[in-house]
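Appendix C: a fully annotated inverse folding record. The material below is reproduced so that readers can follow the format used throughout the book. The structure is listed first as tokens, followed by the designed sequence.
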């Protein structure tokens, strides 16, 4: 079955190549579109509220997960089953006894998505893309502490390289301006025009008054209105937001994997994602939309500041998890990380073209170090599994057993393990976020 998935095609194009290219485009476009949506000119004098975007993101994810869960369920149930029976069975599987445990990672994911908007509002798209790779580090730390997994020397080295690369990227460029000369001051004041009559002064005052937006006549609203019309990047706030988002991403991913391992019920991951999206609706709606921005939303409207750019950002973020699932399903997890690495390069080049981003030497060195760390992380699969002697498990060998051997070919005189034990001697590597081994759905925030 695995080989059939890997060899699947669409319009003659291998699915593993098509999904890999699509995920690379999605990773690159998402950060660029999200960043532009936070710095673009306002729509009708208003900028959209990030709480509404996070809520809509969860609604779209819920719709996609419900569709896929219903499709999987229809394949298992008899063909003559009614729609009522199908939905009743889905509701029964979604609201199982341990589904409430997913409320914790759901809240963490919601907060992480909100912090992503804060980060892209205060960091360049290229800088955010590189710094956000620290979620590999946080996931590894929580996997060791919460799941008891062990990491080899190569993986710890890759994590150290990752931290060093991100630190180098954060080094500010030395662009201290030179002391202006008298000639510079004279040219700067050349275009100034001072009014000579009362009428000219009145006209200048009227022109300045037309540029004031609503509420700017009072001292209380000046800062907020100016920040809305002229957004400024704050690297300190952006860095704090992206670091916190990385911690939440690692914690939520590992906690979700722990729930999957501890759960006794055999629930498909599409159903699990329905549960995640369902529980994510409550914090995104009540904490984000109602509590945080409720007064402004009631005044200006839920979709205030929305245009095609904002909708594109919401849709790109919502379909990201589906694309990750397809890549892991038709290819492997290494291909997913390769797509992430390629998206970093594409985002950097696109930022130079669209946002006039200046690629410094420190950024080049830091990005190259992060890409090297990602390669080392994905290329190390941990200890090799024991080599199983198939003849040991054939019926003809009963009565004259042979010892099994380790990966070096040395005989092991210990008692022979059972068939199931032999197949589980190689523990899966530490997850990046979380995933279902063997090509299941993966949620990527």
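Designed amino acids, in order:
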């Amino acid at each position: 079955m695995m080989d059939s998935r890997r060899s699947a095609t669409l319009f003659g194009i291998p699915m593993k190549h098509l999904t890999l290219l699509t995920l690379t485009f999605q990773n690159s476009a998402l950060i660029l579109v999200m960043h532009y949506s936070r710095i673009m000119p306002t729509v009708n004098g208003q900028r959209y509220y990030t709480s509404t975007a996070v809520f809509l993101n969860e609604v779209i994810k819920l719709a996609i997960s419900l569709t896929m869960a219903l499709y999987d369920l229809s394949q298992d149930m008899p063909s003559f089953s009614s729609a009522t029976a199908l939905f009743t069975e889905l509701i029964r599987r979604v609201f199982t006894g341990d589904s409430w445990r997913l409320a914790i990672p759901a809240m963490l994911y919601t907060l992480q998505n909100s912090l992503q908007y804060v980060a892209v509002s205060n960091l360049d798209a290229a800088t955010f893309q590189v710094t956000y790779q620290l979620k590999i580090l946080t996931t590894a730390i929580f996997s060791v502490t919460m799941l008891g997994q062990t990491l080899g020397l190569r993986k710890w080295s890759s994590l150290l390289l990752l931290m060093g690369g991100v630190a180098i990227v954060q080094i500010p460029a030395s662009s201290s301006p030179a002391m202006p000369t008298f000639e510079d001051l004279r040219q700067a004041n050349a275009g100034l025009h001072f009014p000579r009559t009362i009428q000219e002064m009145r006209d200048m005052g009227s022109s300045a008054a037309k540029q004031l937006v609503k509420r700017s006549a009072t001292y209380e609203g000046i800062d907020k209105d100016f920040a809305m019309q002229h957004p400024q990047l704050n690297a300190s706030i952006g860095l704090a937001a992206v670091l916190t988002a990385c911690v939440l991403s690692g914690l939520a991913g590992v906690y979700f994997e722990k729930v999957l391992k501890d759960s006794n019920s055999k629930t498909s991951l599409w159903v699990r994602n329905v549960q995640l999206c369902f529980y994510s609706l409550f914090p995104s709606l009540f904490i984000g939309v109602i509590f945080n921005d409720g007064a402004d939303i009631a005044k200006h409207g839920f979709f205030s500041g929305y245009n095609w750019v904002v909708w594109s950002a919401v849709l790109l973020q919502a379909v990201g998890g589906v694309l990750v699932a397809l890549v892991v399903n038709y290819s492997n997890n290494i291909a997913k990380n390769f797509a992430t690495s390629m998206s970093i390069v594409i985002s950097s080049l696109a930022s130079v073209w669209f946002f006039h981003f200046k690629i410094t030497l420190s950024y080049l060195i830091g990005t190259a170090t992060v890409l090297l760390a990602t390669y080392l992380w994905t290329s190390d699969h941990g200890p090799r599994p024991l080599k199983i002697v198939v003849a040991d498990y054939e019926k003809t060998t009963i009565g004259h057993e042979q010892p099994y051997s380790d990966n070096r070919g040395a005989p092991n005189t210990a008692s022979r393990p059972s068939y199931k034990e032999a197949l589980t001697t190689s523990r899966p590597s530490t997850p990046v976020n979380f995933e279902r081994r063997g090509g299941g759905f993966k949620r990527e925030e």
